[in-house]
Every structure is written in C-alpha cells, then in structure tokens.
Here is the input.
Amino acid sequence: MTASETPATPVIELRGIDKSFGPVQVLHDVAFSAYPGEVTALVGDNGAGKSTLVKCMGGIHPIDSGELLFEGAPVNVHSPRDAAALGIEIVYQDLALCDNLDIVQNMFLGREKKSGIILDEFSMEELAAKTLAGLSVRTVKSVRQQVSSLSGGQRQTVAIAKAVLWNSKVVILDEPTAALGVAQTQQVLELVRRLADRGLSVVLISHNMNDVFAVSDRIAALYLGRMAAQVKTSDVTHAQVVELITAGRSGDLGLVGTNGNGAKA
Amino acid sequence: MSAVASKAPVEKKSTGSPLAGMANDYIGKLRAGDMGALPATLALVALCVGFWIAQPVFMSERNFANLFTQGAAGAVIAMGLIFVLLLGEIDLSAGFASGVSAGVLAVVMTNHGWPWYAAIAVAIVTGLFIGLCIGTIVVKLGIPSFVVTLAAFMALQGVALKIMNNGTIISVKDKTVLGIANKNVPPAVGWVLFAVLVAGFAFIEIRKARTRISRGLANRGMTVAYVRIIGLAIILGFAVFVLNGERSQNPTFASLKGMPYVVPLIGVLLIVWTFVLNRTTFGRHIYAVGGNQEAARRAGINVDKIKVLAFVICSAMAAIGGIIAASRANSVDPNTGGSDVLLKAVGAAVIGGTSLFGGRGRIIDAVLGGAVVAVIDNGMGLMGYSAGTKAIVTGSVLLLAAGVDALSRKRALPGR
Here is the structure.
C-alpha cells in the first residue's frame, strides 16, 4: 500500500447525494470521494446502493439532491456523454462489449475516428494497439480478434483499456473480477493497480475482500444506502470492513461513530 | 520462419506464406462459428452443377440472364431486410411495402401521366414513409417489430387493394421503367463497367495493403491483395462474358445480348450499402446495436435513431424491389409483393448467411441467397417440377440455412 498522506483534492467528490426510485429511497445523504493515483474500493452488501451511486457518477441516473464536484469544481452530469467529457468512465461487469465486433471496434464504439465520412481504421487500430501495449497487456493476440473469441479476463482487459483510451481521469470498475478464475483475476487486479500508478483515480466495486485488500488504498463502505465509513485500507482490518458492510458500524467506525455522515443508526 | 530483424517497416507475416496465412485465418473464422458466405456459395455451385447435368439448357446464356431478372426484385428487398435483421428485428411488411410502392408508381404514371423519374421518386418516398412509420412505432411504443410489421403486412395489403380500385391490374407502359428488367446494357458498356469495377477494387485493395505495411500494422503482404483482385476479375469477367453472349434464338431477326440493366443496378446497391455498413459510423453502429444493444446504448449510440433508420432503409429498398418487379411484370396488381415475396426475401438473406439473431450479416448475403432461391426456382421449373415441389425444396433449404446459423451461433458462444 502506497497511500501517500492526504493527496491534494479529490478528482471526484460527492456530497449529500439523495436518490429515490419511486417510493424507494436508495441513497441517503451519501458522501464519497476518490483521489488521483489511488484505488478506492466501494464495498457494501447487495442492495446497499453501490451500483446506483456509480450510475449517478456516470450520468446514467440523475441525482435528486446533493452535489457532484469534479476536481474541486461543481459539475452537472446528465448523461453518459457528460461524464465521458469530464473523463469519467465506467466499466460494467457485463453488457460492456459487442461480441460480434472486434477489439478495435469495441474500444472505439460510439467515438469512432473518421476521415471524412469514412472510418479511419488504421488510426484506430494503431491507437488501440498502443493503449493495450501501454497497459502491458500481452494476453491479446491480435487487436482484430472478435470479442466473442476472447476469455473472460481478456474481455475485462479490453473493457478497461477502452475506458483508459480516452485519457480518462476516473475509471469506475463494477465487479471486474466477479466472473473470473484465479489467474485471470490476478491479471485484472494487476491492471487495476497499474491504472492507479499511472495517476488515474480508480473506483473499484467489489464483494471480494481479498481483491479489495490486495489493490485498494481506500475503502468506502455503503450500508443500506448510507455511507458507513470511508477509511484508509492500511488503517482497517478485514474483519472491520466486513462488520461495516454487514452492520454499518465497527467499533468507533461507522454510522454512529465519528466517520459517519450523522445518519441515525 | 526466418529470424531476420529489420528496422524498416517490413511485411509482418505470421507463419509461412501469406496465402497459407489467409487460409488459416479463414479456417479459424469457420471454427469460431462464422461461416460467412461459405454455405451459400457451396449450395449455389452444387445446385448449378446439378441442374446443369440434369438439364443442360440451365447453363445457356439465355437462362443465365433470366436468373438475374427473376431474382433481382427479391435480392433487392433482401438487401433492405438485412439492415433490419442485423438489429435482430424483422420486417414482415417489406413485401407489401414493395407492392404498395409499385402500385403508387403505376398509378401516377399510367393514370396520371407523370414522368418516370417523378414516379420512381414518389414510389421510393412511399417506401421511406412506410419505414418511418414502422420504425417510429417499434421504437416509441416498444411493440415488437414482429407484431408491428405483421399489422403493417395486413394493412398495406389493404392499401394496395385501395390504390388499385379493388383489384384492377394497372399496366406499366413507360419505356424507362420497363427497361430496368427488360433491356440490356450494350456489351461494350458492360466491359467498361467491368474494367472500372476491377480497377477501383484493385486501387482500394492495393492502397489498403500498402498502408498497413507502411504503418506497421498486422498484414499479410501484397500477395493476398493480388489474389483477391484476380479472383474478382475472373468471377466478374466470366459473368460479363456469358451475359454478353448472343441469346436470341434468331439473331438475324433480333439480337439479344448484354447484361440486363438490373445487374448493374444490383451492383451499385450492393457497393453502396456494403460501403455504408463497413466503412461508416452508421454501419458500425448497426452491428453494435445488433450485437449488444445495451453496450451500444452505454457507448452513447442513439439506438432509437439507428433502429428507425434501418426500417426506413428496409422499406425504401423494398420500394426499389417493387419497381423492379413492376418493370419485369409490365404491370402492377394488388398481389405484387404479396404471396411468397417477403418470405423468399427473408429466406434469401438467411440462406446467404445473415443471422436472424442479429449482429451478423452482409449485403452480399442478399445477392448470394437470392441467387440460391432463384436457381432453385428456375432450375426445378426447367426440370418440370410443380410449384408445390419447388416450395418444399426452397423451404428445406431455408431450414438448413437457419440450422447452420443456429449451430454456428452455439459454437461462437461457448458456455453460454
């Protein structure tokens, strides 16, 4: 763990986020921040609101109230395009790639390079290959392979490379290792660490405590739609994080403690 | 493999000769479940050889030209359908969309005396409008395209009847429109078209291969480009040669040679739509939406717009198909575009290798599959089989093609 002491400003910061779907309030007054060069793990039980929180950052769900600050300045994110313009990219667990397209086509999907009206395949292929090489990805044979022929780990790699391609500042990974085997999980985690070491801010949603402790610098634990605690990974133990996830509190950490958001337990 | 390390941009070959590499790539693709044009091409060759042996007249110049005019309307409708099929949707109304458009053409030309160009324009606009309506309903109301186009199928059948005063046959007399399916390109012009096409293809292929080499991208060298150019030249040259042969039974009385005008028309449509699908953002997004709609949406693609446009293209192409059908039949009646026109067009696309599950298909599939359907129809007709037998065989071939599609899909997605 190389978490340096208090990095300047968070790249992305949420304050007092409320979000309801109809009568169900999913997020209550949530605060969250992620710093450059760090992996921030976002943990919580099923239904704690992790995905909703991430989708609010990605512009997929509008927030009901609260503030979204990007590099210290308040911003409005109304669509995935707004988020992408700021440099926020979300890598979804699934639903991210088109099986019938190749790696290059997937990486540039929706943002194809063109010369005139014609797709500039050469530039896209060069850039895709360069990005994969920059991430030290050696598992992919050819960037013109169809995604349907790739393994789960390779798919996840392509999805992450796609997010990095756009000089993004925040990369949010939704359960990137959930469907992977041991070796592939290791590869993806190494890639996640490399992203942060390149100065990106990485938000990692995960259920797997081993993964969280292996790569993260900070941990943010959601409990029933409330932010239970945001702590440095080096300051907490495995058991404490599990308690935060399951009970919302652990000793002096948690919702009634000093690091909570003042919500009633 | 030699272990020569050179700093200059050289041809990066994987293993062995470039042609072996090309073959390897192809076999790899087949193994991955992407059968492409192979089944349709094999079927076409087998059918042609079979009919040739059974009925030598099948391979006569006259019959060869006939095949094109017989299959043209269906192939053009199938081209349009491929856009919709690529999205995993279906358009059951394309047949009657072609009928209604042909009806509009005939009515404004014959009953109102419009010039041919205005009539053709109105017919195509009719197709565009039908597609816009269908696409908008599918997208905005979220009704499955199967149901929307089934409704349109029935309604358009009624519209065709209304336009043609409950069943009158309207003859088409305009020389230009009749010429589409009934007149031939002068043989010399045919050869010029051939030369232009091969030269254009050669230019694009060579430039592509050169750029890949000079920019250091994975490539198989120039040989593959040359092989592809020569292959195209041989196939096209053979077709032009046969179509330019004399096919009049009494040449001194009336000479009949050259390719029918529908052949270059299909060629142009094939090139234009292939370009759109392979080289433009719109085409890329069609494949993306067909492959994974949610991924496309999250990539910021306007899925609704893509869908509406696909239905618009489909119905507009159906209108062009209707115009060809009107030209070939010299008339339009309420059953133009009815009976099995739509089903054969869908069949042609699927036989050609377009997947009904979306995401996979090319425009050339419509031509290949259309050729298979036309050859079965024509060849079995020559052999004296009844319409019933022909329909059973066509149906079996379609089932076979859909089976190949389903199986290759299973193969392509292991463990899913």
Observations:
- Confidence is low (pLDDT under 50) at residues 257-265 of chain A.
- Chain A touches chain B through 33 residues (CB under 8 Å).
- The radius of gyration of chain A is 19 Å.
- Residues 1-87+169-265 of chain A form a domain with the Rossmann fold fold (CATH 3.40.50.300).
